TrEMBL record:
This is alcohol dehydrogenase (NADP(+)). It is an enzyme of class 1 (oxidoreductase). Its cofactor is Zn(2+). InterPro entries: ADH-like_C (IPR013149), ADH-like_N (IPR013154), ADH_Zn_CS (IPR002328), CAD-like (IPR047109), ER (IPR020843), GroES-like_sf (IPR011032), NAD(P)-bd_dom_sf (IPR036291). Belongs to the zinc-containing alcohol dehydrogenase family. It catalyses: a primary alcohol + NADP(+) = an aldehyde + NADPH + H(+). Pfam families: ADH_N, ADH_zinc_N. Its EC number is 1.1.1.2. One of its GO terms (molecular function) is oxidoreductase activity. Keywords: Metal-binding, Oxidoreductase, Zinc.
Length: 346
């Protein structure tokens, strides 16, 4: 065990504070990562404030991790000391079920092991990226290509893969019209990636406040959902609507924007169940679906794709002492577009 510095929420809803945690000794297939940057994901705030389920406290959030390997176990073959690496939302899974074997570890039937707020195979709680170091099995570690700056790469480990995976699954590409609903941390990556894949991209945002940014990041069109004319004008337009919002939506209204066979895919989720009139699916063979992060191989593919297309996240770099203030700003949608913690300040 090694004692390392971290920022933790000591209890649900308590502000995060500097502390120390124990990391396990580097095992045969583990790498020790010197964390350089950690992104702040909206779900960090949900979990630190216990909005989803019973959290494990103290909690060290952070599942958008970028750093450098400083030690590798004797059995490690994929990484060496000095490699630039990332860790996303999971650090293990059963490795035996059909989903794990198919590279869909995120949907492991026994449940994947979350990077934080989870319990690992040894019965120990996992602690995330708001920390100076982390020990991770090489099979759940990603390579960050040289073409990506580590600070701009960190948010790709959650926001990037969460949008890339459904866009690929529902075949976003040339000739396809994709709408990205919401222009936050996830949405801005959705716009960049959908554009990179060659789709015609429309942002649907509450207001036109971020229009200039959206168009700069690769959107072809930008509409305000607060304007009822948007729904008239865009009826039957899209092949895919990627919803990144977690506020309750009028699903009927959004489903009316899909073409026949179109899909509305949710990567954000309201805390309460929703109500949908299924006739809005039946009249057009439409799908209402969801998607969660991506598998390890697909996450690597996403990082390689983003490096090739120069698609880092748009970030605001902060010191660890600013985490609590950053949380408030995220809740007020006051960030363009991802806070990233400089781990040297932890
Ligand atoms: Zn996340
Ligand atoms: Zn599994």
């Amino acid at each position: 065990m090694t004692t390392v510095a971290a920022y933790a929420a000591p209890a649900a809803k308590a502000p995060l504070e500097r502390t120390t945690i124990e990391r396990r000794a580097v095992g045969e297939y583990d790498v020790l990562i010197d964390i350089k940057f950690a992104g702040i994901c909206h779900s960090d705030i949900h979990q630190a404030r216990d909005g989803w389920a019973e959290g494990i406290f103290p909690m060290v959030p952070g599942h958008e991790i970028a750093g450098v390997v400083t030690e590798a176990g004797p059995g490690v073959t994929k990484f060496a000391v000095g490699d630039r690496v990332g860790v996303g939302c999971m650090v293990d899974s059963c490795r035996e079920c059909d989903n794990c074997k198919a590279g869909l570890e995120q949907y492991c039937v026994k449940g994947n092991t979350g990077t934080y707020n989870a319990v690992d195979k040894n019965g120990e709680p996992t602690y995330g990226g708001y920390s100076s170091h982390i020990v991770v099995d090489e099979n759940y570690t990603l390579r960050i290509p040289d073409g990506l700056a580590l600070d701009e790469a960190a948010p790709l480990l959650c926001a990037g893969i969460t949008t890339y995976s459904p866009l690929k699954h529902w075949n976003a590409g040339p000739g396809k019209k994709v709408a990205v609903l919401g222009m936050g941390g996830l949405g801005h990556m959705g716009v960049k990636i959908a554009h990179g894949l060659g789709a015609e991209v429309t942002v649907l945002s509450q207001s036109l406040r971020k229009q200039e940014d959206g168009l700069k990041l690769g959107a072809d069109h930008y509409y305000a959902t607060s304007d009822p004319k948007t729904f008239e004008e865009l009826a039957g337009t899209f092949d895919i609507i990627l919803s990144t919002v977690s506020a309750p939506l009028d699903f009927g209204a959004y489903l009316s924007l899909l073409k026949t066979d179109g899909a509305l895919v949710n990567v954000g989720a309201p805390e309460e169940p929703i109500s949908v009139n299924l006739f809005s699916l039946i009249g057009g063979r439409k799908s209402l679906s969801g998607s969660g992060i991506g598998g390890i191989q697909e996450t690597q593919e996403m990082l390689d794709f983003c490096a090739e297309h120069g698609l880092g996240a748009e970030i605001e770099l902060i010191a660890a002492s600013e985490i609590n203030e950053a949380y408030e700003r995220v809740l007020n949608s006051d960030v363009r577009y991802r806070f990233v913690i400089d781990a040297a300040t932890i």
